[in-house]
Design goal:
By secondary structure, the chain is mainly α. It has 2 helices and no strands. The protein is elongated and about 45 Å long.
Length: 56
């Protein structure tokens, strides 16, 4: 449910940007940045908990 909601918000933001609405590109940029920050936080938690990528 939350995934669908976030996806719909992203689709609407991109459509608004394509129409050239004021502030829409900023919305898309900050949405992408916040998602990437969430990804990085998850990666840091993984390694902080002793996770390993198993190189070698």
């Amino acid at each position: 449910m939350a995934e669908d909601y976030r996806r719909d918000l992203g689709i609407n933001a991109v459509r608004a940007a394509a129409r050239g609405e004021d502030g829409a590109m900023d919305s898309v940029f900050w949405r992408l940045m916040s998602e990437r920050a969430g990804d990085l936080a998850g990666e840091l938690r993984f390694f902080a908990d002793g996770g390993s990528v198993g190189v070698g």
